[in-house]
Every structure is written in structure tokens, then in C-alpha cells.
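G., before I forget:
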Amino acid sequence: AQSVTQLGSHVSVSEGALVLLRCNYSSSVPPYLFWYVQYPNQGLQLLLKYTSAATLVKGINGFEAEFKKSETSFHLTKPSAHMSDAAEYFCAVSEVTGNQFYFGTGTSLTVIP
Amino acid sequence: GAVVSQHPSRVICKSGTSVKIECRSLDFQATTMFWYRQFPKQSLMLMATSNEGSKATYEQGVEKDKFLINHASLTLSTLTVTSAHPEDSSFYICSAIGSYDEQFFGPGTRLTVL
């Protein structure tokens, strides 16, 4: 069985500060992991994905995430927050590419000017 | 990149009516599409897996007679909410599997049932 836990439903950071959004997963097989961003009333935009290649994954808009098997984590980071980063962020896991995703409950990121 | 569209983007209907939502893969063929539902401030919950030319596979707790899914071609899947009620009001998002098994999401459809 697969599941995703996102710690912290709401995260606030100051503009220019480090962004850290946490994601832990459980999977019986090596997982594929994803981070998506969702702006109000819009669909999901892929930020980055881990598919068993490099453990440090770089995505769009300056985001990156590191796959840590020992910690079953895939936390999302960005060195310097921008106002446009304010959105909802979802972590997702899949056992096989092309298969259904299991989403975390989401983290709402607020950027304070 | 691959594009998935949904139509309509917003729909308001009266209780008891049926609403059809279309999900199209615009520049690729998708054998498999997924339908998700998202309540306000909550995550996406998978409703069903739609396979071209065969019956959809529904997740536990999802009424197949209420949420009719048709995947008649490699670029189109439809979700029909039959006899809609206010509790069906939600954000419905589809996704399609493209080349290299990557999943692409549509922009979503906001359904409001009065």
C-alpha cells in the first residue's frame, strides 16, 4: 500500500527566506515521487519528479527535492521564496509510471512580503 | 509539453440534472485517463481509472451508476455526473498518461450544484 504524508497543512515564510515543504511516503516497492503546485481554481502543474535516477532532483521555478530512502522522505525546498510561490503544493507517489497517483493532503504556502 | 484540456471549466446546474465533463488529450493519445475529485482545501482523491475501449475501474466508495465514465477514443474521456446533488459540488480534475508514462493533468472543472 502506498501513502503520502505532508507535515504542515500551512507554511508561511518571508519573501527571500528558505522554503521547506515536507513529504514522507510509504511504499512497498521503490516509488516514483512527484511534487505538484496548484494555484487557485487551476489544475496541477508538475514541479519535479523522482524516478529512480539522481536522488537530488531539480525542478522548475528554482525548486528542488531530495529523495532520502533511509528517511522515506522527499522534501521540497527553494532557497529564496518569491511572492509568486504562494500556492498549494501536493506531494504524490506512484508505484509504477503511468499508474495512479496517491496524493498527500497538500501544504498551503504563504509568502509574507 | 503535452496538453490536457477539460470542458467546461465551470458549470452550475440544478439539483437532479446531469452534467457531462470532457477531458481531452490535445496532442497525444492516451490509453489511460484518471478522474480525480477535490473538495475545498483538500487533496485530490482518485475516483476512477478510464481505459479506452473498456469499462472504467472505480475506486471503493465511488458509485459507478452516478459517475458515468466513457473513454470512447484515445483522446477523449467523459465523466457524467447523473442526478447531481449539492454534495456533488466539487472540483473535478482529469489526467492522461502520455508517452514515457508521464501523467498530465487537466485544468479542472468546478461543478456547483444548486
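The radius of gyration of chain B is 13 Å. Residues 52 and 73 of chain B are 6 Å apart (CA to CA).

More on Monday.
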